[in-house]
């Protein structure tokens, strides 16, 4: 199975691309582009509208214009990154904006794409961002990284718990490292198992090791 087929058949179907641009035609056009690739899409014409939507529904990739309603899109980028939820943010540039583009990259943008948009280039950037999202980076201390399908369904805390469980830590040890109680670790573990379709801890390990 090719990479494109894999991401279309598995990743795209549950992934939400949220476009933030004050041009409704651009939003509609990009929505069609991503839906044709199997993604779910949403779009907002204002930064406030986008932030409000985050309270109701997660976003896997945000595509944000460097200029929204005559104002800079950089504050929105800062806000998204301050949430520490790992959401990749691709910035769009209506015109050459070198200083703003450099600042965006320093703030953690995945990339800056100029208009007119090269559709294949944008799709490649998004696919690469999602490919990295499937991979849990190695945590400090030399622990091995974990790869697992369905990772995007987990909350940041659940991802941390999964990493610690995979590295053989007990509920007590994981709780001590994360600063929460062993009982809370048990709750997160149960949610991880439910989302990944694991019947028990051994089954969870099997899913992780065979993904």
Automatic annotation (TrEMBL):
Residues 16-130 form the Response regulatory domain. Residues 147-211 form the HTH luxR-type domain. Keywords: DNA-binding, Transcription, Transcription regulation. Pfam families: GerE (PF00196), Response_reg (PF00072). GO terms for biological process: phosphorelay signal transduction system; regulation of DNA-templated transcription. It comes from the Bacteria. InterPro entries: CheY-like_superfamily, Sig_transdc_resp-reg_C-effctor, Sig_transdc_resp-reg_receiver, Tscrpt_reg_LuxR_C, WH-like_DNA-bd_sf. GO terms for molecular function: DNA binding. This is LuxR family transcriptional regulator. The lineage of its organism: Bacteria, Pseudomonadati, Pseudomonadota, Alphaproteobacteria, Hyphomicrobiales.
């Amino acid at each position: 199975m090719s990479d494109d087929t894999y991401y279309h058949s598995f990743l795209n179907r549950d992934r939400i691309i949220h476009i933030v641009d004050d041009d409704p035609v651009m939003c509609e056009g990009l929505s069609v582009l991503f839906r044709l690739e199997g993604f779910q899409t949403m779009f907002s014409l204002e930064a406030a509208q986008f932030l409000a939507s985050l309270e109701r529904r997660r976003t896997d990739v945000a595509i944000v214009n460097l200029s929204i309603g005559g104002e800079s899109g950089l504050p929105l980028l800062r806000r998204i990154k301050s949430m520490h939820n790992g959401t990749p943010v691709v910035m769009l540039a209506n015109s050459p904006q070198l200083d703003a583009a450099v600042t965006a990259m320093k703030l953690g943008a995945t990339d800056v794409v100029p208009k007119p948009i090269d559709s294949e280039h944008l799709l490649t950037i998004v696919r690469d961002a999602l490919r990295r999202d499937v991979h849990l980076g190695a945590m400090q201390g030399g622990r091995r990284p974990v790869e697992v399908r369905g990772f995007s369904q987990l909350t940041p805390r659940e991802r941390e718990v999964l990493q610690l469980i995979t590295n053989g830590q007990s509920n007590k040890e994981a709780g001590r490292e994360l600063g929460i109680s062993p009982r809370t670790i048990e709750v997160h573990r149960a949610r991880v198992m439910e989302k990944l379709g694991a019947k028990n801890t051994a089954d969870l390990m099997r899913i992780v090791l065979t993904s």
